[in-house]
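note to self: dont lose this again. the chain is below, predicted strucutre after it. 753 aa total, dont forget to put it in the shared folder this time
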Amino acid sequence: MVHRLFALALVLVLGTAFSQEPRFIVAYEDGEDDIQIEYSNWLQGQRYLETLVSTYEHVKLPYDVSVVAAPCGDANAYWDPNIPAMIVCYELFDLMYAMFRDDATSQEELDQEILGATRFIFYHELGHALIDIFGIPFTGREEDAVDQFSTILLMSSGEVDSALAGANFFYKFASATELEELVFWDEHSLDQQRFYDIVCLVYGSDPETYDFLLERESKGFLLVTDGGILPKQRAERCYEEYKDISNSWDTLIASYVPSSDAGQVAIATETEPTLDIADVLETTSYNEIFTGTLQEGDETLDNGEYFDYYDVELVQGQEVTFELSSAEFDTYLIISAPDDFGYVNDDATIKVDGYLSKLTIPISTTGTWTVGVSSYEAGQGGDYQVGVVTYDGIYNEVVTESLADTDSTDKTGAFVDSYPYDFQAGETATIVLSSLEFDPYLIVTTPSGETFENDDFENQFGMARVDFDATESGTYTISATSYEKGEAGAYQIAISNVGATSPETTVNANTGELFTDFQQGSLSAGDNAYESGELYDAYSYEFSEGQIFIVDAFSSEFNTYLVAQSPSGEQVYNDDYATDGSSTDAGLDLEISESGTWMIYVTSSKVEETGAYDFYISEYDPNAQTTDTTDTTDVQASAQDISITDMTSTKARESNIGVLEIGDSTLDDGSYVDYYSVDLTSGQEAVISLVSADFSTYLGVMTPGGEILELDEQEDSSRSRITLNVEETGVWYVIVTSANMGEEGNYLLSIKK
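---
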């Protein structure tokens, strides 16, 4: 659905023609000192209040309302119904400047933080004004209600930075306040509470987009992520909080739709759009699809919700993803095993308001499983689709047990069952703990004492999951426990095929010669995946201390991410090797700090990205000297014979591992050169990447008309990269050469269109 507040936000942005009288009127009082005068001039120069006010021309007021910037003697902003006016005090800007300046990296960043917080405060006071002017009812504290109003309106308008700036204001204020200074009888919630309330609403509006706000757990063996400010205990309910509070404000606003009555708010509304089911699906290819309609006459659950069900035949060891989607009701998915073990999900963490429910579960029992389709609330109905994706042979062991008051307890008092399991270094595993009788919490402890932990995998209630690669051989401990102490009940543990290593073989890079390896791979459904959802492929190499490699991953289908892990578990990684951060290719300059088995992982920057990629690793010898053994006269003569016809006959493919060497064509300066042809169309963007550990790379391009463009844009001597905006349709030519005459060696060329 499109919330009415979102429709309001659209009107605020686009503007709507209503009578200009009565209206909001902006005024600036003179500042009392130089700093206040500066703030006044700054606000007027930005026309900031005028801009905010102009977006509210759609509100049909019963009388003029002033918006005034003024000296107040106190850092404040408030609604004064007696004037009537919204007052923004100059002293407030002085306070915000002092709060934000230490964390800002530039004056521009500081200005934006102050203006964002001001926007939050303005909408907060607007909420007070609308409640007072139109008698809008509310429950709870009015201050809490208008904080919610401001946050939801900002999110609906795409102003997430302003909402977070408002939260940051309260965080800073709380940090500067001692406990004994707090006024517990005040009508405002504590600043710490206001901070978390705002952040919770931002996160809840779209948990996938704003997951950076969530306190992070390790991705397991890889990519430990710091940061996050919202505790999981609060985040679990934020999506529902956002839905409930947003719907509540929708209902309140609905009482003030356009009317001839002078005392009502005129708010433009839009027709609810028809949402195509395809718009809410994450998976595009299913093994099975069921379609149907929840409607009167269907079976019902205990609370009156309509209920349809379908049988699917599944085999122990499979991993299956179920996706229930609808454009018409808030979906609720129920999966039941033949032995009555079950799984449920309400809302998947994507930006679709209640229309997608998703479960990814291990199949513990061969037989007929039941897919139940229902709604979150009684009486809801409409068309739906269930998609089923099946991956065979994933899990090879399932344990069914129960937590009970006779079990051991951990230091929190929670019951715990522990299982020893032997892994070899390099083996991969997925371990899933599931239960509908308690909130499961899974802990995997390595022989050296490192722990991997998870509570709710992808916000799936009743499931915890850990994906990891074993970095050491020995006995690992798998602990099944609960999130809260005292919880008990039946559970299952499923363990993936740990017998297979990832990758299956380790390549020895100690060959006595400079080592080069080139692989063409693909990230696809069914690959290994981190706990956070990114798929990955693993490559294993035997390196010796002191070796130096360049490592690169190229793809035209997703944003590559490279991670190298040492035998002791230390990691180095790269997302974009371009110095300006513009590249979707990843590159590492890898100095081997310890001998042994190194793992190199090709993954993606975003969850569930898939596609083909080129992976290239080449050893570099900084002491190697290249000798030019060709005769310069012969080189020049040869170069003059090269024609466009000759170039069209050269090797032509979108990715290639090649060699610059004696016998190649040469340029006038004696540099060896290879040519590649590629068909390009006007308006395309082509990204051309060249990598070599053996020579200083240099790229050129020839247009279909014969114009040579020398465009070696990457400063790194081992890499060159061109982003080409094609202006002419036809055959273009890529020129691969070296920066210095006579340099030879292996290279990887990748051309992405």
